[in-house]
Amino acid sequence: MSFSSQHLFFEDIEVGQEWLSSGRTLTETDIVNFAGLSGDFNPMHLDHEYAKSTPFRRPIAHGLLIVAIGSGLGVNCPPMRTVAFLQIREWNFREPVFIGDTLRMRTKVLEKTLRGRGRRGEVIWSRIVLNQNDKVVHEGSIVTLVEGKLSQRSATRNETVPEAAG
Length: 166
Known about the structure:
Layout: E1 18-20, E2 24-25, H1 28-38, H2 43-46, H3 48-51, H4 63-74, E3 82-93, E4 102-115, E5 120-130, E6 136-147, H5 149-160
Antiparallel strand pairs: 1-4, 2-4, 3-6, 4-5, 5-6
């Protein structure tokens, strides 16, 4: 998959800008599939009877599943020309997430640093996962590497230069 004209370059965003994603409802199938993928079969996620004995009284989603869903919600919030996911600076699990909760991601640009002579830039993002009641369930900051506009000019120049005769 290539980037579309809708995908933003490093230069297209400013510190302080915010976006809110569309919602995604967590299903029991999501939790079961994540357990199978990760190998985390903790009964607090999968066993309804056991979960009744916990403070939550019902199964809760794996914390790392919510991190992964948040990552997916953030892909188009905003749509960036992301080259690499570099780091999770911090991440806090604030509230449990239950089957049937609808999650959204609020994304904000915290910092920008130009890299690679303008061909790319590093962006530090605030990421807040909200449930259907606008309660913060997860929050933290991440760092990504994003294409700069100079990368496109370099690619265009390289495409127009004929290969040397061999």
